[in-house]
Amino acid sequence: MSRVPHSERGRIVELCLKSYTQREIADSTGRPTNTVNRIIQAYRNEGRICDAPQDRRPRVTSAIEDDVLGPRLMLICLALRSSMLNLQVFQLH
Q: For the whole prediction, is pTM greater than 0.70?
């Protein structure tokens, strides 16, 4: 699904406010009627023209923890992947 640019969303809402039908707006913009309807409903119900916020999985570690753990975890992964490396070389202190 391709994203509808913000400027085009604004144009769709503008045409709706000028009493164009959704079919006329769809024909004018080249977008499916379903897309036009979704954008208009988002404007009417939530007052937004931009994309809806996306739910994201919460972070498991903080940025500081990533900085501290990152290099150590990389070394452990490298050691486990390589049969030639001795794990004792990468002992954590």
A: no
